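quick one, two chains, predict together pls
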Amino acid sequence: MSPAETYQSVVPLFAVLVSLVVVPLILVSAQRPNLRESWTIGASLAKFGLVASLLPHALAGRTAEVRLLEISPGIDFALRADPFGVFFALVASGLWVFTSFYSIGYVRGLNEHKQTRYFASFAVCLSATVGVAFAANVLTFVVFYEVLTVATYPLVIHKETPEAISGGRKYLAYTLTAGVLLIAATAWTYQVVGDLDFRAGGLLEGKSASVETVRGLFLLFILGVGVKAAIMPLHSWLPTAMVAPTPVSALLHAVAVVKAGVFGVVRVVGFVFGPSAMSAFGLSTILAIFAGATIIIASLLALSEDNLKRRLAYSTIGHLSYVVLGTALLTPASFAGGVLHIANHAAMKITLFFCAGAIYVNLHKENVSELDGIGRAMPWTMGAFTLAAAGLAGVPPVNGFVSKWYLGLGAIEADAQLPLVVLLLGGLLSAGYLIPIVYRAFFRPMAGEKGTREASALMVVPLVLTATLSVALGLAPNLFVHLHDLAMNISRSVIDGGTP
Amino acid sequence: MIQRNLPVLIPLVFLFASLVVSGFGIWKRQLAYPVALFATALAFGVALFGLQHVLTVGSISYRLGGWSPPIGIEYVLDPLAAFFTVVIVGIALLVLLHARIVVERELPERSVAYYAVSMLFLTGLSGIIITGDLFNLYVFVEIASLSGYALVAVGEKQAPVAAFRYLLVGTIGASFYLLGLCFIYLESGSLNMADVAKILPALHSKPTVVVGVLLIVVGMGIKMALFPMHGWLPDAYTYAASTSSALLAPIGTKVAAYVLVRVLFFGFGVEYVRTELPIADVISWLSAAGIIFGSVMAMAQLEMKRMLAYSSIAQIGYVGLGIGLASPLGFIGAVLHVLNHALMKSCLFLVAANVRTSIGHSTIPSFDDSLRRQMPWTMAAFSVAALSMIGIPPMAGFFSKWYLALAGIEQSQWVFVAVILASSLLNAVYFFRVWERVYLRRPVEKHPVVHSESRIESREVRPSMLVPTTVLAIGILAMGLLNALVVELIIRKAIPPGL
């Protein structure tokens, strides 16, 4: 396969910067909330537009690239909108648009304090996320990854309660440690290979390195990105971080931050080590074992969790490992399925979090056991919840089915029975922890006053839209932004194009 | 013509300024500050010009009194020296810009003496950097040290005691250096560094030379607060006047590290300190221990300046570690960290000074979020510097760690790599301790009132203090992004021969 054609373009840079330049504007408009929020909305639309404009090129196999400056002798601070980067950036920036509207409804509905800090940090996070997506080499990736860590902190501790502050400490302890390990891995890779550019098929491909070195590097890398990807046993910051406001949990803990982690896993596996090194050194088996265990254990933990957001958090942990598992199986279908699941899970999980937030703002209920009959009070919200829940369980035609289909196909391709069992069991368990909520909401009698009381349109419309999007992407995976084709391209470039 | 005289100009400007400051100050007290500031600005200009000249044309050698080198005293401005003078004079300039209000507040009666002594201090530091003569270096060390003791002594109530301890320990350090120098002179018969470097290789195995080297390393180890010879530092930095600590902490110990580089790599030769007499190993192990010790101690401090003082012990460890690794990457990391740490630590000490000016103390447990609302800009600068200290890219602090980690990995020194990385996390702990209070802790009030941002009166410091603080914060970010330029254009040219 011929190497992808690259062309110089500043679009990736603008896509990263657009939400960063509005930060000062958000800060100076602190006294005028409507103006301040319009900056957020504007930036989210502009960001999505810029990323989307890169899509046709990415589909045609042309990669936009911009080299900014040398940040270490021999290593550039460079952005490259390769298909995988575009894929992730599309997901993150697209869902940011929904979250921006939803956030406004949420923080105003609860009359939250420090809204300026909230919106400003959010914008920085999105810049960092798109930076992670477009990073052309490991060092650039690390820079954005660390910025993302720091910029999320103010959002995690937003409530400023003792619980939030200790959650923030835990979050930082985990993510900063991971960042340090990632830096070590980066430096070591540079010393071994002398090059840090991500390459489909692996930058270590064809380089001589001892078994110990490769294994040590892999361990450091996976510990580095595995914390944000919440691979067990590195996951425990995530349920704790659920003290954050719900839109934060929705976008950052279902889309941007945790997905930056799994994005990192895919980058490490597919673009640093490459399939041949992964299987030759037995790395993929180890990764698959951890991912499989995470799926099962996290789902079991979700079953017993009464707090709705924490249950969703455990569900996230499980579903992130679907991506990791798909990556670790290293077949074309499983890899594509894993990549697709980044987008599909994001759409479904953001819906679920939006619903949880709408329930909280509207009825101040946080626990599953309090949700009896709530479907009658909030039919739209719970309808969306039902769709997304069915999708996570793998029911067609919601998009969760599509990615699971490919994952299953990949497991069969790899002739691996155990992963297949894990996938099926994971689907059943997903149903097991989500469907009872639907049952309670619609079939149990409601306590207290009757009548329809939906949350504000600013919250309900986004969540209905994301639920619709989930179904639409299930019916036509290529709808709007050709995510399906992109995922296939990415998978092919990594798995087949490994040795040019 | 001026180019040839560049090396001697910088110390001379400061020396002259110290005389003029005291002279004018007796006549009119208000004149002391502008004169000192002008002299520093002038010296900074000269230093910049010198750096530019050295990089484009080449090193400059100046013969004091016209005597030729082995006999006479030689001043040399090579890339390393030029880089250090720019860093030191630049930081001093920003600190002095900031100093006026702090000096008026903390040392109202002694401002003339303060400025005169600080000029003398800078004379010593710049002299140490530029001189090419081992004995002349001792003279400058003494000038810098004596004025350093004075700078510490004019601080708080406990300051004289701290200064006395500093004086005792510092004098021992200087004496060790002098003694070591005597041993070297005994064998080589020369005091000129370049000359000694030529003579010594034949005499490397002689016990006198070995003892001389060790004495010099110990002496400079004390001066740079290399663990476990750091005992004098915390009290000295804590009790000195805020502006003195801001001047001493970022650049004082760095100069001793510079002497170590000069003497070890340029004087005795890389091969000698790396293999024949593995002094480099000892330095790096001590530095690694110092990094952990300083960081852990910093976590336990209740006073911000004291916390920063312990953090300085840790940070000088990075420089020591880079020197001890004795490789090009280690050298780059060490020299870059001198610049980065000078920016970060001066920024942090200026923040401490701002907080003291505004609320009268800097005790961490009493901080709360009123501080953030009263001094948003100072606290923003603090955040930038702290993130850099933790090593969050793209701040400057990350990149010194990056080069040091590269150097450690290159030599398979995994312990050092682990220390460098672990210290990031320790730094995070002690800086987040401050952050949580400044940004998240509600003030304890007798009458709970609803806060509104507009009702909090701003107690932000005056622009003359705020501007240097923010310039340093911006400098930290800029140095992070532009570090490759500094490395490629300056530090690579300064790498000692044979490294």
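The interface with chain A takes residues 387, 390-394, 398-399, 401-403, 405-406, 409-410, 417, 421-422, 424-425, 428, 432, 436, 440, 453, 481-485, 487-488, 492 of chain B (CB under 8 Å).
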